[in-house]
Each structure stands twice: as C-alpha cells, then as structure tokens.
C-alpha cells in the first residue's frame, strides 16, 4: 500500500484520511485538549475515524467545552472526558486508576499537554512546573497505564506513545539533571525551562522505545509554530513578545523568518507519529513537518547516556521503577 508524501502544508484531516484504515477501531488518549490548541484539533480529527477518543484536562469546564464542540460537529463520535492534572503526581495516579478501570485497551497515548512558561513555579510535589507537566507527569502516566497499551499489541500492531516536543529544544545547551529533581530558581529562565522540558520529551521517546524492545514504539515531534491558546496566556506572552515570536500587541509576528502553521497543519505531525505505518521501523524517531527528521535533533537531546540518566532520575522522583 502506498501513502502520500506529507509536507509543511499537510493538514491533520489529510493525514487522518490517508490513515483512516489504521485509525479505525483504535482507542486513543490525548492530554491537553482545550479548545484553540493542537491537542483539541488532534482529538477533533481523530473523532471522525477512531473507536474511542479520550480527551483530558485539569479544568472541568474547559474539558466539557471541548467534548461539547466535538460532539456537536461529529454526533457519532465516541468521546470520553478524563480529568488529568499532570502537575500533581497524586492527580496523575488518580487519572491512571480511572483509565485502568476502562473496559477498553489503549492503542495510542499522545502526550500533548504543556505548561506555559513565565516565572519559576513549583508544583505541589516541589517540582518545576514545565518539567513536571512535560516529563515527570507523563512518565508516571505512561508507566501506570502501560499494561493498557501492551494489551493491544499483536503480530500486526505495535502500540504507540507520542510526545509533542518542540524545535525550541535546540535553544538550550542540555538538560541539567540535578534540577529535574531539585529545581533551582537561580538557574531557571522561562525559555530555558521550556527548552529543557521539550528536550526531555525527545529523550523520553528514545529511551522508552529502547527499553520496550518492540513492544511499544515511541516518537517525538515538533508541530511547528502555531498560534494556540498557550501563546495567549499571560505567563508565556511576555517571553514570546521578547523573542519576537509575537508582536508587542500579542499577535503572531508574520514579518520575520518564522513560518506559521494553521491549527490544522499544526496537528498533522502528531497524527503521523501516531499512525503512519512507515514509522514502524523507526522507533524513537523525531518528526518535523510530518516526516522523520532525526538530523534535526540537537546533540544533547539524542544522547543515549543522558536519556538513560533522565529515565533513572524520573524513576527516583516518582518512587517507582518503570521496566518492561
């Protein structure tokens, strides 16, 4: 079977149409699905084809709005809402217990949620918020519901875990493993925190694929530069204006070198990572503009020694080992 060649301009709907057969019958969980975000667009498009789409968020009202919007457009969609606050390990455990109580197995887990930058902020577990939401919470969630993913494995199917990372991982020199467990406000900058968190996503995909040994395949990706709800949060707006990503009025800067994607284009690479059969032989791959782009990973984010150490540090933080 031949599949289309995807590009920068490819939309999520185009990807879903190309892989409709692969998506059919699948159960997918997506974190961070508030409206006006790429997680919502991913869920909306998948709802047209998948057996079950589990949408998550920490805000009950916003989650209800997302479910309502999808069901209004696609009445036959099978949508299930799950309250999930990735900044709290206790909340992650509660959500995971709920997922494990579902009668259905899980084919794909998409880690899409991100925390806006801004000033140094600790979670209830005394972790830096951006790293907690991007790496530590998702690590614990994956560990706790891994059996749900493994239950879908067969001779013809390998379950997938997808991490929505960012090209911004290249703007930091590396991950300070000491501050992952012991955050230091003196070493923190908003952009640095974001870059380290997104570097962690890439390392997590590489290490998870390595340890799973073909039982689960993990991928990471840069979705592109998209004007989403996170850009408009006060915590992140000032940094984006300072970096020239947004104009002083808070709107996208379209006059510079940045090529902006629409929401539909922004969600496309996530769907490729989740369903493209051509990636089956490339576990741990990093995607850009809907294709594998391992050559675009900064050296610190593809270092196997760092990936293994980050895994161990995260195990120590959650107080559990994660092995297959």
From TrEMBL:
Per UniProt, the keywords (alphabetical) are: Oxidoreductase
What name is this protein filed under?
Answer: Short-chain dehydrogenase/reductase
Pfam families, from UniProt? Answer: adh_short
What family is reported? Belongs to the short-chain dehydrogenases/reductases (SDR) family.
- Entry keyword annotation includes Membrane: no
Name a GO molecular-function annotation. Answer: oxidoreductase activity
């Amino acid at each position: 079977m031949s599949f289309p060649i995807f590009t920068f301009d490819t939309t999520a709907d185009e990807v879903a149409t190309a892989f409709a057969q692969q998506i059919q019958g699948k159960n997918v969980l997506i974190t961070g699905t508030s409206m006006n975000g790429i997680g919502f667009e991913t869920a909306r498009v998948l709802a047209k084809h998948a057996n079950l789409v589990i949408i998550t968020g920490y805000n009950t009202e916003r989650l209800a709005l997302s479910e309502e919007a999808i069901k209004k457009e696609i009445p036959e969609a099978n949508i299930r809402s799950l309250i999930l606050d990735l900044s709290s390990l206790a909340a992650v455990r509660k959500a995971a217990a709920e997922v494990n109580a579902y009668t259905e197995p899980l084919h794909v887990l998409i880690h899409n949620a991100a925390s806006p930058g801004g000033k140094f902020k600790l979670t209830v577990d005394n972790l830096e918020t951006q790293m907690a939401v991007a790496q530590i919470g998702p690590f614990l969630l994956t560990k706790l519901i891994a059996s749900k993913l493994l239950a879908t494995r067969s001779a013809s199917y390998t379950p997938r875990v997808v991490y929505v990372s960012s090209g911004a991982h290249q703007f930091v020199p590396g991950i300070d493993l000491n501050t992952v467990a012991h955050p230091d406000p003196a070493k923190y900058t908003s952009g640095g925190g974001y870059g380290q968190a997104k570097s962690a996503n890439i390392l997590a995909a590489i290490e998870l694929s390595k340890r799973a040994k073909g039982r689960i395949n993990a991928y990471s990706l840069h979705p592109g530069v998209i004007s989403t709800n996170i850009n408009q949060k006060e915590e992140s707006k000032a940094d984006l204006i300072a970096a020239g990503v947004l104009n002083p009025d808070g709107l996208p800067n379209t006059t510079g070198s940045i090529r902006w994607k629409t929401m539909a284009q922004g969600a496309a690479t996530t769907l490729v990572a989740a369903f493209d059969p051509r990636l089956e032989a490339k576990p741990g791959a990093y995607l850009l503009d809907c294709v594998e782009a391992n050559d675009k990973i900064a050296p610190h984010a593809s270092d196997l020694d760092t990936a293994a150490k980050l895994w161990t540090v995260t195990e120590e933080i959650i107080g559990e080992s994660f092995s297959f």
